[in-house]
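ok trying again, last paste got cut off:
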Amino acid sequence: MFEKISGRIRSPSREVSQAINLLGDCVILVGSSALATSLPGSSGWHWMVFLGMSAGAMLVWSLGGRVLRHYDVWNGRGIQGDLVLTALLLGVMVALMAVLRLFVPSYAAGSSIQRFSVAAVPAILWLRLTMSWLSRREVPIQPVLVIGIGPLGRHTGLEIRDRGDHRQVMGYLQFVDEPTHNRLPAPVLGKAADLEKMLMQHAVSEVFIAGNGDSQRAEMQAAIGVLERFGVPFALPACGFRFGRARPEHEKAVADGYIHYLSVRHKPVQLAFKRLFDIVASSTALLLLSPLMVVVAVIVKLTSRGPILFKQARAGRHGRPFNMLKFRSMLANAEELKAKLMAQNEQAGPVFKMKRDPRITPIGRFIRRFSIDELPQLLNVLRGEMSVVGPRPPIPSEVAKYAGWQRRRLSVRPGLTCVWQVSGRNEISFEEWMYLDMQYIDHWTLAHDFELILKTVPVVLMGRGAS
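nice, full thing came through this time. structure:
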């Protein structure tokens, strides 16, 4: 019952990482089987070996992984535990292949097993180490907010503090009928009614609503409404009681005593493919475009004073700040001049756009027209701060002027391109831009991402809508 009503698992990043591990393992197993059976002078029999080896490896791996909960995001293992379990599964699989070798007494079969082992074992262990390194880089400290300073709220804060899973309680909000005390692991920042103001001022990854009675139900419902409008994940108590020994029959769904919800569609397998694509596409593009980027860097340096790269603070997922990279296309003091040009802003809403911005350098106008100035953002994509496809990351000062419903565009990872880029860019209004981003978030699919990438190519090459 608990699994059916749970909005999502406790750690979306962990869920996506495990999905990437599963997909990567499958690719490695099939690839290792192909390498193992590609012997000189191979015949149809070796194709049968390939099919049998691939099917057998996948069967043993999937069954063993399920029994040992290898891909279970609730297993609580660290990298050491994952590596030990991965090595165990690999050992069992290779041992079973060695036993099957007894029934196929041929040199070809023995050599295939050896080649499979040499290819698969280090590749899967490398994947596990790489994913562990990426997860540590991609999951910085995630600030969470707890509404409720009673026993449940205090216990929740202590549990998050002691768990050590990249989350930190930034503070508490107090229900109207709760007495104040100073035994909390984080400060009380205000009342539950201040939730919207807190979300406008701070980047919050998740909100725990630690209410426990009918007297707080109205405030809890109001908080849920705010969180749904902002697109911020939240968690509700799974039960109004705390237990010492008793456990729910399906403990996975309520491992931390809460049921977690998202206001955006969560597709872990598709998100895993999306992140894999981001890594492969950004690293490949950086390699192929490196000669062009070197030439642009030299021209920027020679034609105007100032640094080659422009680093600008942008709001990432849930408003978390990061430095977005661009080739500098403006004068070195462009940010100072912006205040003097605000009266000439040609875009409605909190964003600033001018078709003939006097701050832009001659070479800057060219590289902006064809989005060449955006190429360094491939590094942001590789580091996990951005994605290839997603709403463009806004400036924090612009976010501060957003209406509540507009902040939901921060509920997903920002990207290089999205619907706005292929719909006229600066030729559409701010309101239309926001609605396009909301439609993307609500109806996101991998197919839609690839469609937007294909549409972006001619828009960039022709420089449509750029300024």
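cool. Residues 1-12 have pLDDT under 50 and may be disordered. Residues 268-303 form the longest helix (36 residues).
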